[in-house]
Write a sequence for this structure.
């Protein structure tokens, strides 16, 4: 009977991966992921940059590894297959970037594994929400992580709200937030850990800059307004 590892991966800079995550990903033969091609490239890059210099073992390359794609729409369907692999040995779970299950599929898998008597072990590491929060200069004693906003939402005062947004919808979401909460402090974090990283205080006057931005990566929005 194997163990299910929940492995955090870099959100942009490969050097942010932990030594333990490197070992788990190179040693584990079965990897549950979103995009199998993207994860295969990540494993190859990890081995080339860290594998031989940190660990002395025979690398199980991506051709020998088994990748299982699990997404929101097929998670229930893939559960039996992953549990079957766990019966044989260890399985690692990764997302396309950052910490799995945070605004990603996977909680049904973890629930099923725990219910089935398998050990589930987190391998902590990069999390875009926490990274943005740490650099925003907003209160951190109380915060709410939204991930991507649902269709209906309302932000409560007295806490910092952490929101993910796509580059396509970013300017529209910022416009809505500014309209609903004109006195709120808003910080936007883009391309975190990458060459063009930018973390800045948003003002409605610079909305046109957001609309004309060619940045492709997802953004993290942080919003805070005090209780009256």
């Amino acid at each position: 009977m194997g163990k299910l590892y929940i492995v955090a991966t870099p959100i942009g800079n490969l050097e942010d991966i932990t030594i333990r995550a490197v070992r788990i990903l190179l040693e584990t033969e079965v990897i549950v992921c979103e995009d199998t091609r993207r994860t295969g490239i990540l494993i190859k890059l990890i081995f080339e940059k860290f594998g031989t210099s940190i660990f002395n073992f025979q690398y199980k390359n991506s051709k020998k590894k088994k990748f299982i794609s699990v997404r929101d729409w097929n998670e229930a369907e893939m559960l039996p297959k992953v549990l079957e692999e766990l019966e044989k040995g260890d399985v690692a779970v990764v997302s396309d970037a950052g910490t799995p299950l945070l605004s990603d599929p996977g909680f049904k898998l973890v629930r099923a594994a725990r219910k089935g008597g398998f050990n589930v072990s987190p391998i902590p590491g990069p999390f875009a929400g926490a990274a943005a929060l740490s650099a925003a200069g907003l209160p951190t004693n109380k915060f709410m992580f939204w991930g991507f906003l649902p269709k209906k939402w309302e932000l409560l005062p007295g806490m910092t709200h952490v929101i993910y947004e796509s580059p396509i919808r970013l300017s529209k979401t910022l416009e809505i937030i500014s309209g609903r909460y004109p006195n709120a402090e808003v910080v936007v974090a883009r391309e975190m850990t990458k060459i063009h990283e930018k973390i800045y205080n948003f003002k409605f006057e610079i909305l046109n800059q957001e609309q004309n931005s060619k940045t492709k990566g997802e953004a993290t929005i942080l919003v805070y307004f005090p209780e009256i």
